[in-house]
Amino acid sequence: MKNDIIITISRQFASGGRSIGRQVADSLSLPYYDKELITLAAKESGYGEEFFENIEEKANNKFLYYLSSGFGNVSSWGTDIALDDKLFLIQADVIRSVAAKGSCVIVGRCADYVLNNNPNCINIFIYSDIDHRIDRAKNDYHLDAPNLKDAILKSDKKRATYYNYYTDMKWGQMENYHLLLNSDSIGIENSVELIKRYVQLRQQNR
Questions:
Q1: What is the pLDDT of residue 21?
Q2: For the chain, what is the largest distance between any 2 Cα atoms, rounded to a whole number of angstroms?
Q3: Predicted pLDDT at 48
Q4: How do strand 179-182 and strand 32-33 relate by DSSP bridges?
Q5: Pick from 9, 6, 4: nearest CA to 110
Q6: What is the 3-state secondary structure (H, E, C) of 171-203?
Q7: How far apart (Å, rounded) are the C-alpha atoms in residues 49 and 12?
């Protein structure tokens, strides 16, 4: 590529965003980071992966103070900051580290916000209508719940709560992204091709 490109993908639950991100990475021969970030964060911090997998979406005034002061050296904060907040910051350090190595695709984990000062970022939000998401949850994710619609919307609410708390932005708000894409309108494979074309045009205009 002409210049490094960091593609961050935020997505509604069962919108196909993870599959799209993986296929974009494979097609462009880029490193792909999703749950891989959990493994890296656990390795760097010494905390078990289960800590990063189960970060609760809860606020802490002391965290907001640290965040407004800059991320700084997380390891020096000791026990003065809540564990969940410390885990977020450790994960943020890992995200910046992998982005500094060159072009890649990063799915979720507030990567668009963590890298908001990185000029190489293309931030994408994938969404889909609820009926398609229910079908995908059943057929692709093999989920079986008494009310899948409620489960899907609850998952979205948790993602929004987490994102809105740990950033100064609103999850899914169009101003926060370069490209918003309805994966139903053209399908997964065409969504991948559209993102690749967007990357190409972005490179040509830099």
A1: 97
A2: 49
A3: 76
A4: unpaired
A5: 9
A6: CCCHHHCCEEEEHHHHHHHHHHHHHHHHHHHHH
A7: 23
